[in-house]
Design a protein that fits this description.
With 57 residues, the chain is mostly helical. It has three helices and no strands. It has a single domain, classed as Winged helix-like DNA-binding domain superfamily/Winged helix DNA-binding domain (Arc Repressor Mutant, subunit A). The protein has helices at residues 3-16, 23-30, 34-46.
Length: 57
């Protein structure tokens, strides 16, 4: 899975999940480190995608 596919999958997971999901959980689902998820979310936000963060994920 390349970076673009991963970010697409990340968006899909976040849209379809009703409960907060932690960066660690997302990393395990996508087979990358939590830091990669943090970077992907930053890129998605910079691209105009609304990603909400809570203390629970």
């Amino acid at each position: 899975m390349d970076a673009k596919e991963r970010r697409t999958a990340l968006c899909t997971i976040l849209k379809e999940t009703e409960q907060p999901v932690t960066g660690t959980e997302l990393a395990k689902m996508l087979g990358v480190s939590r830091q990669v998820i943090v970077g992907d979310i930053a890129l998605l936000r910079a691209g105009g995608v609304h990603v909400y963060a809570t203390p629970q994920g």
